[in-house]
């Protein structure tokens, strides 16, 4: 991972009785880290090579996990290159607002027609907007060696991000509940956050157990979630790079 990002380690424990957890870094116990998940970061180059383990204990005894090593590389100093896939060119309305907002943040944005996609491996990020045709985009491979951000809910099952047919509307809402404020997709938000000025439906999903649920609707259903590198998608395959999905109304500029 790049310096400045956060690393997440998780453990799944079985057996009788509720387990307790104790995380170690380079063989030394990390104070206060006693859950089944450890978040490290933002990491720096000094963290490269750090070794992490977790000791799991229940009434039958303790076991120490295998070692997981952290690899940190220097972040690119150039502008992030983004492939912005849309069903409408030239960009207009909200699509143009989003592209302009990304450009103002220093990103190099390349708008791409959804039915004329070139190779996407040369970009730092692929964004699939809600203006695409779900049938045209159904063959997009979530195992691309490039992070993907998609907010077209009809693609969630095609991209193996959510169980088939589970992407229903979330009623009339203006707020979400942020569950992982430390996640980059939360953008520093925490607690209950107003994301739109006018009530409308949120795209909901039933992602796999490996997904990180960043935010939920007022009914508790995931509406912003991510699969990190190596996480298992709903069909049992692995995400080669981080893959994120969100409501079509989450984190877009404008009302």
Structure in words:
- The protein is mainly beta.
- Helices cover about 5% and strands about 30% of the residues.
- It is built from 2 helices and 16 strands.
- It has helices at about 95-105, 135; strands at about 5-10, 20-25, 30, 35-40, 50-60, 60-65, 70, 80-85, 110-115, 125-130, 150, 175-180, 190-195, 210-215, 220-225, 245.
- The strands form 3 sheets. A 9-stranded mixed sheet has the order 9-8-10-11-16-15-14-12-13, with helices on one face.
- A hairpin with a 2-residue loop joins strand 5 and strand 6 (about 60-65).
- The radius of gyration is 19 Å and the shape is globular.
- The protein starts with 6 loop residues before the first strand and ends in a 9-residue tail after the last strand.
- Mean pLDDT is about 85; it is low at about 245-255.
Secondary structure layout:
Blueprint lengths: L6 E4 L9 E6 L2 E2 L7 E4 L10 E8 L2 E4 L3 E2 L11 E6 L6 H12 L3 E6 L11 E4 L5 H4 L10 E3 L24 E4 L12 E4 L17 E5 L5 E6 L15 E4 L9
Parallel strand pairs: 8-9, 8-10, 10-11, 11-16
Antiparallel strand pairs: 1-4, 2-3, 2-5, 5-6, 5-7, 12-13, 12-14, 14-15, 15-16
